[in-house]
Amino acid sequence: MSDTPTRGILDGYRVIDCSIAMAGPFAAQRLGDLGADVIKVEPTAGEWQRFASAGGAQGNEINVSFLSLNRNKRSLAVDLKSDAGREVVRDLIAGADVFLQNYRPGVAARLGLDYESLAAINPSLVYVSMSGYGEDGPYKDRPGQDLILQAMSGAMLSAGRAGEPPTPAGQYLADAVTASTAFEAVLAALLHRERTGEGQLVTVNMLDALTTLQMQELSVYTVGGVPQKRGTEPNAHVYIRAPYGVFATSDGYLALGFADLEKLGEVLDEPSFAGLDPEVHGWTHRDELYATVARHLRERSTQHWLDTLLPAGMWVGPVYGYEDLVADPQIIHNGTFVEYDHPTEGRIKTPGFPYRFAKTPARIDRGAPLTGEHTAEILAELGVSPERTQELLDAGAVAQTAVPVPVGASAVPS
């Protein structure tokens, strides 16, 4: 799709993506965005995420969930329960750099795709195994689902009112953090391999990813001995002084944090704030301060408070919905969203890349593939003859999907 002549940082690396759902595919997509040749190995009927649409967004041939997590990949549809299908994947492994899977415990070994088996084929392979709770231990067989992991991480009880149900994050946070962790781990393991020639097993689990994300908060508890105690007002975090949170205005909501209490009192015409020390009273009077600020802010509009508080040096911002976010001038300036044409889904507008490289930028060369869209192409690269490919197709060991002629527009910032 892109006419950009530059090569991605990971150009020349091949990634075999045997993952499903969000965390694994998202990590592999990040590698593809940087130029890696990512081959998505999926069942002949298609990966699970093709049939589980977030928000009910079905799409034409590809639902939006799958579309958003699988750009810059080629699809090889193969039956891993068949000897012929497993042989195709083993042939791929022999020339691959990274293998990524998030199978349930024991599945990789049953398929002959565990680390020991694949390292025997390719000792320099970086093998990434992703799980909900770890490779072993008392929870290894539990489902690693995003909301459940958020709940177990402890983070939900760092915000909100005591006695009220905790509020989950507005993102699929556990999946997204785990994906970024795996992406980071792959890059580090590839760097090690460049220096030593050694491949290795890399394990990433969602529980550890979310726990270590809370480095500061958990250290306040384990080292500082400060209990995780919610107050009577919905402060945004138990370990940050008041006022800190989201406040209603006359026409919406406003986020405010780390305010100098005396200056804030002047802006709000609140004499009781005079002489207060934020690092003392911000803790000892947390709920009272929150309630007083909330009373003032609900009297005027969000824009009024932005126009008033920002010039006074307050840390303040609007609370956006997605419509506001997409239209924000900084988002537009940054080129945060990209647009490209997909052969079945039409014009796509989606978040782009979280990094910028001056010489080797990330880019979109292809949208999410149809099931088995690249099966024949990948088999040909392995030296499989057209006749043998047809035999595999006829036997159901692999599958492919015919693709319409693409529209052919370049990926451009939105």
Explain what you see.
The protein is an alpha/beta fold and 414 residues long. The chain is 36% helix and 15% strand. It is built from 17 helices and 13 strands. It has helices at residues 23-33, 64-69, 83-94, 107-110, 115-121, 146-152, 173-196, 206-213, 215-222, 261-268, 278-284, 286-297, 302-309, 322-327, 329-334, 375-381, 386-395; strands spanning 14-18, 37-42, 73-78, 98-101, 126-131, 200-205, 245-248, 253-257, 315-318, 337-342, 346-351, 398-399, 412-413. It has a seven-stranded mixed beta sheet with strand order 6-5-4-1-2-3-12, with helices on both faces. The protein has a three-stranded antiparallel beta sheet with strand order 7-8-9, covered by helices on one side. Strand 7 and strand 8 form a beta hairpin. Helix 1 (23-33) packs across helix 7 (173-196). The longest helix has 24 residues, at 173-196. The mean pLDDT is 93.
Helix and strand run:
EHEHEHEHHEHHEHHEEHHHHEHHEEHHEE
Q: Radius of gyration from the CA trace? A: 25 Å
Which strand-content bin applies to the residues? 5-15%
Order of the strands making up the biggest sheet? 6-5-4-1-2-3-12
The major sheet is characterized as: 7 strands, mixed
Helix content: 25-40%
Mean pLDDT figure: 93
Number of strands: 13
